[in-house]
Amino acid sequence: MDMKEQAEVMTPPKMELSLTINGANYELQVPPTKRLVTILREELNFTGTKISCEVGRCGACAVQMNNQLVNSCLVMAYQANHASIITIEGLSGEELDPIQRVFLEEGGFQCGYCTPGMMMAVHALLATNQAPSEEQIQEALSGNLCRCTGYGGIIRAVQKAISNNNQK
Ligand code: FES
Ligand code: FES
Fold first, then answer.
1. 29-38 as b/e, with b when 16 or more CB fall inside 10 Å?
2. Is residue 91 classed as helix, strand or coil in its secondary structure?
3. Fold type of domain 3-90
4. Is the Cβ atom of 58 under 6 angstroms away from ligand 1?
5. What are phi and psi of 19, to 5 degrees?
6. What is the Å distance from ligand 2's center to 150 Cα?
7. Smallest-distance ligand from the CA of 53
8. Per-residue pLDDT tens for 106-141?
9. Relative to the alpha carbon of 113, which ligand is closest?
10. Which atom of ligand 1 is least distant from the CA of 74?
11. How many CB atoms are closer than 10 A to CB 62?
12. From 65, 73, 76, mutation site for ligand 1 pocket: most ligand atoms within 8 A of C-beta
């Protein structure tokens, strides 16, 4: 078997992948083991979702899949077929999402690389618990690593979002 034939044997055939992303439908052909984060960033240009550790440890690639927070570097195409995905681009319309606004007001980021994943995690937390304690906030963000801010501004931002919600 020559090298070209070997490469063909080793490359899995592409699958038809159907996704809903931020409310819009997408159909594409990808290898079944292609990672969701790569599909989002490289095939569909949703580059707000970041990639860093690639092994599920940093949360930079966090998105919602069928209303669950997932690290999209750990999700293969075949696992995401027919799923509904929300990325950071899906949080805001013409105006900033309330979580984005409080991160801005409280200095919840510096380089911003971890920020989309952090915000997705905060959304997932507040969807299930509208008045989390500081300990619960820390636990909810324990899968999201930030190399810049020291977390103080991030926790303050989440607490401000909670306080804003309570004043409505
Ligand atoms: S890049 Fe996915 S968890 Fe780090
Ligand atoms: S703001 Fe830079 S990694 Fe978090």
1. ebeeebbbbb
2. coil
3. Ubiquitin-like (UB roll) (3.10.20)
4. yes
5. -135, 150
6. 9
7. 1
8. 999 999 999 999 999 999 999 999 999 999 999 999
9. 2
10. 2
11. 28
12. 73
Is the per-residue pLDDT at 10 higher than 80? no
Q: What pLDDT was estimated at residue 90?
A: 96
The answer, yes or no, to whether residue 54 has pLDDT greater than 90, is yes
What is this structure's pTM? 0.91
If phi over 0 gives left and psi between -120 and 50 gives alpha, with beta otherwise, what is residue 13? Answer: beta
Distant-in-sequence, close-in-space partners of 150: CB < 8 Å, separation ≥ 6: none
Domain boundaries in the chain?
3-90, 98-163
CA distance 80 to 72: 9
Which fold is adopted by the domain 98-163? DNA polymerase; domain 1 (1.10.150)
Closest ligand 1 atom, CA of 54?
1
| Residue 8 pLDDT greater than 70, yes or no | no
